[in-house]
Amino acid sequence: MTVRVQLTDGPLPPITNPSYTEGSGAWIAFDGIVRPTEDGQHIVGLEYEAYRPMAEQQLEIIGHDLHEKHGLISMDIEHSFGFVPNFECSFRLIIESEHRKEGLVAMDEFIDRLKQDVPIWKRVK
Amino acid sequence: MPTYTILLFGPAAVAMDMDRVVIESPDSCSVNQLKTLMSQNFSVLDAHLQAGRLAVNQSFVTGETIISAGDEIALITMVSGG
To answer: What ipTM goes with this model?
Structure first.
């Protein structure tokens, strides 16, 4: 059972070499990308502020909850803090599971909980 | 008289133009009592207090939780990660 959490200063680099765990039948990645507009106005990017120790702790709690609930193989969770320009990745979740179904459900549940319980705020730039 | 420092982030920090506020309380108090004191002292935080939660030592707690000296307290307003 593996849950990894990381907060990174600035945009997250693209995935280059995915590695698969033995026994996994699904490897699912979600990238959250900064959109170029907010409420119809053009923006240059988003500034993310995190209450870092609590944000890491909350991401781990949610990760472990869903890992156990859905019997996942692994979760890799990464979120940016600081400035992230348009078209760059600010959040990434990679889930490995034996079958796709539980991985996809866990992905959706994780993002819902992230948007409720993880102390990270964004501000338009 | 106990004093409590409450960390501010995001919209609450912008509203106050500072990253923390200090509240003095006549006695030890609960999370709900501290929220009331904050509202009385900093009305600009009212909306954030109503929509937000207080975290104590980096965990969400109930309103009845008693705050101890030295606890790390933070106002967690509506978050917007992702």
So the answer is: 0.91
